[in-house]
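User: what does the whole thing look like in 3D?
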Amino acid sequence: MSKLKTLTNGFIKENPTLVLLLGTCPTLAVTTSVQNAVGMGAAATFVLVGSNILISMLKKVIPDKVRIPSYVVIIAGLVTIVQLFLQAFFPPIYKALGIFLPLIVVNCIILGRAEMFANKNSVVDSALDGVGMGIGFTLALLIMSTIREILGQGTWYGIGIVPGAIESMAIFKLAPGGFFTYGVVVAAVAALSKGRATKAKAAHCGACPSAGLCGGAEKGEC
Amino acid sequence: MKTLKELAMPTLVLTVICVVVTAALALTYQFTAPYIAAAAASAADSARIELLPEADSFTQITDENVTGIEGLVEAYQANNGAGYVFTSKAKGYGGDLFVMTGINSEGQVTKVKLMENAETPGLGSRVGEDEYTSQYVEKDSKLEGVEAVSGATISSVAFKDAVSIAFQAYGAAAGVEVEVPAEPEVDPRTEIFPGEELTSIEIEGADEAYQAGSSGIIIVVQVEGYHPGMQVITGIGADGKIAGVGMGENEETKGLGTKVGEPEFTDKFKGLGADEVNGVSAVTNATTSNDGFKRGVKKALELVTQEMLDALATAKYTQVQPGAATFEPFEAENALEAVRTDLGIVVLTQAEGYGGQITAVVGIGNDGAITGVRFLSDHSETKGIGTKALDPEYLAKYVGKNSADGVDTVSGATVTTDAVKRAITKALAIYEATKGA
Amino acid sequence: MKEMIVILFSVILVDNFVLSKFLGICPFLGVSKKLDSAVGMSIAVTFVMVLATAVTFPIYKEILEPKELGYLQTLVFIIVIAALVQLVEIILKKYMTPLYQALGIYLPLITTNCAVLGVALLNIDAGYTFPEAMVNALGAGLGFLLAMVIFSGVRSRVDAGDVPDAFQGIPITLIAASIVSLSFMGFSGVVEGLLK
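Assistant: Here's the predicted 3D structure for the full assembly of 855 residues, as structure tokens:
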């Protein structure tokens, strides 16, 4: 794959959240506001890029038997670094992300990409893949949170958008609204990409060993 | 059998990775720890700045003179000298309630805030509302004029106590004297016959005289105690005996002569007759005040004649039919009591109000018009709401009317007003039934 | 005792892990199609949650916290959980084969799942005592079970219906989930009322 393709793959065609359906938990939880979504996207991207680079660098060194535990340790380390930095320099975001910050560790996207891509490709390619997937994830979070914040609160990133024009429906900020928005957006993406995305998904899921971790194979989607 | 290499290598690699990662984290932690601590401190500080806006940052006070004060939880001093923020507690209705108080360098309250508490939601918890807490702003330690939340006395008192504790801490921390809030004054006149309305009457020789419904008469005379101008308040019951005594305005020596006004002494007078007053044991070291007081009580007893006491018995009726002189009881359905007077009838009727039965005393003239209405004090109507419909000022509207209609309903007290009207209507019905009898 | 009951009911009904806290969505969406696999999965999840709490809680309280190593929480927890489950799987396979056959296949699926790590972290965050944490973990698992069972019923109806192309599969499942989640919101207030 060309470098550009590697990068842009994760944006839409293989968008981790909307097409591959990985990382669903944070997608639902932190998209109540755009600010939180961006925070999560940034944090996850940092970890993703970092882990992809490191794992790609160490791919020849890590024996196959212990590769999953090793990846987990490296990812956990990166997540902890992000945790500490946010706690020190961006306390509000740290508080807002709450438990989902450490849960980035078990975000299927990261371990998935490590398995699928980083341990088979060059460092540069892995880095690009990480950036691309991270951007795709953040994009998905942005779409979800934009919908939920505007409909649920009438603001975007805290700025009032349509004060009074639409009556705020608080339900969008709550659990049911999260599920609903996610379902609609995924359906929209499926409709818009008309099968292109589904095919890519099929190829991916079956070959994705992280399916064992995310239950993807069981979904009956692949 | 796996070779040692096959088994050892993976384990070794994993271990190395673990160690490296842990080391990296330890380093990151060392680096970020101070920033994290600073962020936490400023978050706590911003809560305190809310109470003392002029402050910049705070240092905790550890001086035992301050922290040892009963009820004080935490004390912080503003680093720029703007003042202090204290967290104190007092026992409220549902348990301890916690209050944060900001006191500036001039000893005035900047803001108070209700913290953890177990008060009744919607009632005691209202001490946390702006309407109550805003009263404290700019007050000094005397906390004058702070009014309790109606219906939440205990919570209000607890809140006020907590703020007082904060002032005590302020005194200790700033090294200044703090005055304590004054105890609320209780007027002995209203304490002797609780629940009875006092009507001012003229009695020659008495500075003040009141008729307490049909329960008794209160006489106030001025005598010379240790100092001149000591008001002696004596309440005499319908039986001619002392119902209670008290000391009004006086210039007696604080802590000595003033002890004559305290319950320990005044309680001894209850139930005594005129010839027993001298026998009451004196207050130690306050002989002159004592003697003056007893003289006042005896004078009061002299001023109250048997006639006056007899009039008490019929006070119940004359209150709603002034000027009536003869009283003949008669039987009437739906009435607790009924008397025929020379001016008409007076009946006692009942109706179900908001909190239970209310008893009306209704006077109706020979022309069928209401001469007066009042209600007995043993009712359970909501204080300040339902009781507005039992207020003499409101009931006066019925005087001269032939029916209970035509008088407006007291807003917010529909149920009680309704009961009032029903009781009055019952009385009018009795008039109709028995007139010409 | 009262607190335990409150915690239990809260985490099962009001603060349901899946429908309210958004933890454990992957297995929720993946395995809830058939009732027996849903139940099997839930029991496995509950088992791992309780076990994970039982091990991670003391480790944090006795080792990490006192030694100011709190920042190693994420790392240590995930390693412990992964290792623990591996161990359990091996033991089950060798000594309790029938049980392994029923539940064992789900174990890898939930090892590094947000729900398990989530409950371990939440117990520390909430400041529970050890017994309270265990009750919380049990409740979380039971809540998961409840959500799964209800949802598998919902899903079988949904799939039988006529679903527009774009919505087929995951999207309609998510929308169904939103409705179930909505119904669970009705439980807020029950717990306080229960023990008044």
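In plain terms: The longest strand of chain A covers residues 155-156. The two ends of chain A are 23 Å apart (CA to CA).
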